[in-house]
Amino acid sequence: MLKEGIPRHEQISNWIRDKIESGDYKIDEKLPSENEFKEQFEVSRVTVRRALQTLQNEDLIYRCQGLGSFVKDNRSHQTLVQLTDFVEDMRRAGMEASSTVIRMEPTNVSEYITSLLKLDADKTVLRLDRLRMGDGKPIAFDITWLPMFYGQLIEGYDLTKKTIYGILEQDYDIPIEKGCYRIEAENATDYVATHLGINEGDALLLIDRLSLTVGEKPIYYQKRYYRTDCMVYELMAERKPGTKTSDGNMPLKEFAPVFNKE
Amino acid sequence: MLKEGIPRHEQISNWIRDKIESGDYKIDEKLPSENEFKEQFEVSRVTVRRALQTLQNEDLIYRCQGLGSFVKDNRSHQTLVQLTDFVEDMRRAGMEASSTVIRMEPTNVSEYITSLLKLDADKTVLRLDRLRMGDGKPIAFDITWLPMFYGQLIEGYDLTKKTIYGILEQDYDIPIEKGCYRIEAENATDYVATHLGINEGDALLLIDRLSLTVGEKPIYYQKRYYRTDCMVYELMAERKPGTKTSDGNMPLKEFAPVFNKE
DNA sequence: TGTAAATACTTGTATTAACAAGTAGTGAAT
DNA sequence: ATTCACTACTTGTTAATACAAGTATTTACA
What we know:
alpha+beta, six-stranded antiparallel sheet, homodimer, 29% helix, DNA-binding, elongated
């Protein structure tokens, strides 16, 4: 049953983990007892316990003295503390995402942007302006700058349907590994305000994003302006019981955009 | 040496944890070996290992086969994915935090706020307006609403020196267990703009916060307006190697305010 | 001098053993 | 019918022991 060279407790925890992740052991289902595993794998009870503790540390199971070990429900943790895609955000809010390309052309840009993209100062980049909508209503306005190398790849695609992320990852195997975000507030310019259907000078939530692929290589820089009457970001921070941080800091548990449908 | 009623491995891990947190064992310092602990506490090696594994799971130590156990450097992790206190934020930015109380008086407020604080609609609350400064320059403006029950507790304290959090937790043993945040953008009102030294209508980053103690009991509701020319929030999301989320979502790794000192 | 073997020390893996303690059900006594 | 003791099963704690494997130093040899 068990191979050599790999610790038995590791093989056992892997075996059980697979069963949990594949759904063979369902949520709150009682696992076989330590003695049952002991006989099944023909190891000592200590070895089984070592395997079960690994899974407990991974938050995959919980154990009750006198009762047994059970599969833990981690669904609520799955989405926590993740930054998401616009289309995905909309889907979760129960709205249909759509986009309109307002502008798409090679331009020369400020040195600030070329330096972010790690390009020579005089290089031309592709600028892509899009209006993002939820159920047909304007929600955000994107301005994206891509190096021409990546820009040419997305040319010709229907950006109403596909995201830049999706095109690069699925069709060209260029994965986005990292994102650096900045959250700011800015007064709407005439250009952005017109497209979003608001007044010039209205406060907008601005999310700056630099997306990077392997080796810290920049793929695009994006400014996204959110209408704050439609959307806010919600965060929840919670202190674990027993944790005394003393300085009032709490680990972040949730980070999700919330949309106001009215 | 060891008490009864509490598992020995727990007492041992607590003892070592204290030594680490108090700084008796410094970063990357080698801990006594398992056999040394075994003799020191007069327990079996298994018990010592059980204690050390707890600390390893807590990310307080790392162990190298053939070398020993060492105190882990967790300074870089401390700030990750945590929401912090204003004073703490300033300290990290190398600026000195100070506050001015602009207004502090019992008021009647909108039903929205009383409902957030789980109070009857006609209840009076304490409103506290403060200007928060870094190195003497205005950075944020706080408006805080507290139920009178908590409000009376902070009356008389020097809010220039102490935080609401600190007073309630340290002097009254009321811990803040949870915080719900909302990130928005808003145009500055005349009142806020004057104190922050900016123009009316300028876009401000608004952090709404509802702080809760045990049992989801609200302690205060706060609106904090940040001058965005001074400060932005920075986030970093990173995909773990080997993780294929397929939808472009990435777990949040960092969340920290960044201040612009100029 | 330089390399390789021996060593002493570390943590890692694994067994067997025993008892403690919590849970749930059974059955007898009230 | 209710309570209580008993029992069977579970996980929790702890010990004593053995060997494997990684690291670093020392020693012996070429």
